[in-house]
Amino acid sequence: MLLMSGRDVCHGVVFLLLLSCRFSCGVESDINCLKSIKASLEDPLDMLSSSWDFNNDTEGFICNFLGIECWHPHESKVLNIKLVDLGLKGRFPRGVQNCTSLTGLDLSSNNLSGSLPDDIDRLNYFITSLDLSSNSFSGLIPKSISNFTFLNILKLDNNKFLGEIPPQLGQLSRIKTFSVTNNQLSGPTTRNKTFSHPPMAMKFPSYCVILHVLPQNI
Ligand SMILES: *[C@@H]1O[C@H](CO)[C@@H](O)[C@H](O)[C@H]1NC(C)=O
Ligand SMILES: *[C@@H]1O[C@H](CO)[C@@H](O)[C@H](O)[C@H]1NC(C)=O
Ligand SMILES: *[C@@H]1O[C@H](CO)[C@@H](O)[C@H](O)[C@H]1NC(C)=O
Ligand SMILES: *[C@@H]1O[C@H](CO)[C@@H](O)[C@H](O)[C@H]1NC(C)=O
Ligand SMILES: *[C@@H]1O[C@H](CO)[C@@H](O)[C@H](O)[C@H]1NC(C)=O
């Protein structure tokens, strides 16, 4: 291990993680995650109902679903969910927290409404991208978003969010894209703040940030 370059160590660790995930992360939970998302969203254009067919036993079958990207095409473990401009309605799909290996969630340009759950940080802590822009979300921006330590992209613009931007979001040290314009936010805001931190994602593949929270003696 000592002789490996940083990059090899990273790949090695990710490989170990993936191996251990086969036994502990529970692929079943990702299938349930998508079932729950489908059940909780209104889909007036039948975008999900035509693509998300759960009557299939093939390992990795969900990886062919519209908007779903898996870690590996033959393993039902979801890496990214991108459901953009599909006319979806309803509230933020809480079931997404059961996709325990998710790194990116993009629900932009739909017609989702209601407030975000205060405990939205129950999503995978390693999430690097959260795009909820161009919907009709309302209420306060949950301060718990600040618990997504690895977040690179946070887009909440073009919604109906109220109140102030939680100051805790200033702790998101890896953020490189942050937009909250066109909401009903009040108070002292830095809506178009640019961040001076070097964007981590440009230096490492996003999964490598996992390294920083592993115990030193692995
Ligand atoms: C099940 O999923 C696999 C992999 O996506 C696909 O090739 C196959 O056609 C599907 N079977 C049915 C019955 O839909
Ligand atoms: C997550 O999955 C568990 C087990 O399947 C289930 O009991 C729970 O309701 C799910 N959570 C959400 C928010 O759907
Ligand atoms: C979004 O929903 C609102 C209220 O339900 C409706 O008036 C509006 O037409 C919808 N917009 C789109 C783009 O579907
Ligand atoms: C972050 O997560 C911890 C542990 O779940 C929780 O106690 C804390 O309130 C969260 N932070 C915020 C700002 O919500
Ligand atoms: C934010 O952007 C607007 C329009 O682009 C500009 O007028 C304003 O000065 C900017 N505010 C800050 C704090 O940079």
TrEMBL record:
Residues 1-26 form the signal peptide. The keyword Ubl conjugation does not apply. Gene3D superfamilies: Ribonuclease Inhibitor. It comes from the Eukaryota. InterPro entries: At_inactive_RLKs, Leu-rich_rpt, LRR_dom_sf, LRR_N_plant-typ. It holds the Pfam family LRR_1. This is Leucine-rich repeat-containing N-terminal plant-type domain-containing protein. It comes from Rubus argutus. The lineage of its organism: Eukaryota, Viridiplantae, Streptophyta, Embryophyta, Tracheophyta.
